[in-house]
Design brief:
By secondary structure, the chain is mostly helical. The chain is built from 10 helices and no strands. Helix 7 crosses helix 10.
Length: 210
C-alpha cells in the first residue's frame, strides 16, 4: 500500500507540474478540469484498498459501493482526449504529454480492481473474483457513457436516485433504442476488461518467473 501511494504521489506531482506549466505559459485554465478528474480517479484506488482492510462485512460492503460508484472515473480521463486540439501558445505535443500523463495516472485505478477481486476471491473463490472484476469493468464502460455524454457524476446515484433510476429503466427495458449507449458501453467496457486481464496475466507471469 505504501509503495502504491508513493507511485500515485509521484505521478500526481508530475501531472500537477505539467498542468502548472501549461497555465503559466498560456495564462489560461483550459485543462484545469484535469485536476478534478485526477482527484476523482484516485478515490476508487483508496476505496479498493479499504475493501481489503475492512474487518466487517458491512464496512466492506460500504467501501465496495464507494469503489464501484467512483471506478469509472479512473479510465474516464482517457476520453479527455476529445478536448485535444492545437491551442497556441502551448504546442500540441505538450498537451499530448499532459493528457497522456493524466490518463496513465487515472488508469492506475486498475489496481483497485485487483484489490477487490482478491478480497472476493478469498471469500467466494476465483470464479466469483473474476466475475466481479469483469462486471465492474463493463459497468465502467456504461459509467463513462453517463459521464461523457449525459454529464452524470459519481454522486448522482445518491443526490438524484429517482432521475437516474428512471434513465436506467429506459435503457434496460429497450436497450436497442439507444444504439450509442450500447456501443459506447460495449466498446469501452471490453477495452477496460481486456486491458485489465492483460495486465493481470502479465503480472502473474512475471511473479511466477521470479
Amino acid at each position: 500500500m505504501a509503495k502504491r501511494a508513493l507511485v500515485f504521489v509521484v505521478l500526481l506531482a508530475w501531472c500537477a507540474f505539467l498542468l502548472a506549466g501549461r497555465v503559466w505559459r498560456s495564462h489560461q485554465l483550459t485543462y484545469a478540469f484535469l485536476a478534478w478528474n485526477l482527484f476523482l480517479a484516485v478515490i476508487p484506488a483508496f476505496a479498493g484498498a479499504l475493501v481489503v482492510r475492512a474487518r466487517t462485512t458491512a464496512v466492506r460492503l460500504m467501501w465496495g459501493i464507494v469503489w464501484l460508484l467512483f471506478l469509472p472515473n479512473a479510465p474516464y480521463i482517457v476520453t479527455d482526449f476529445v478536448h485535444l486540439t492545437p491551442r497556441a501558445p502551448v504546442p500540441l505535443w505538450y498537451d499530448v504529454a499532459l493528457l497522456l500523463s493524466c490518463a496513465g495516472t487515472g488508469l492506475l485505478g486498475y489496481s483497485s480492481v485487483a484489490d477487490v477481486q482478491d478480497a472476493v476471491t478469498v471469500r467466494f473463490g476465483a470464479a466469483a473474483g473474476w466475475l466481479i472484476a469483469m462486471a465492474a469493468l463493463l459497468l465502467s464502460g456504461f459509467g463513462v457513457y453517463l459521464g461523457r455524454f449525459l454529464r452524470w457524476n459519481s454522486w448522482d446515484p445518491i443526490a438524484n436516485p429517482a432521475e437516474l433510476l428512471n434513465r436506467l429503466g429506459g435503457y434496460g427495458l429497450n436497450p436497442m433504442s439507444h444504439p450509442r449507449t450500447v456501443a459506447v458501453t460495449f466498446i469501452y467496457g471490453v477495452c477496460f476488461a481486456l486491458g485489465y486481464a492483460a495486465l493481470h496475466v502479465i503480472g502473474t507471469t512475471t511473479m511466477r518467473s521470479r
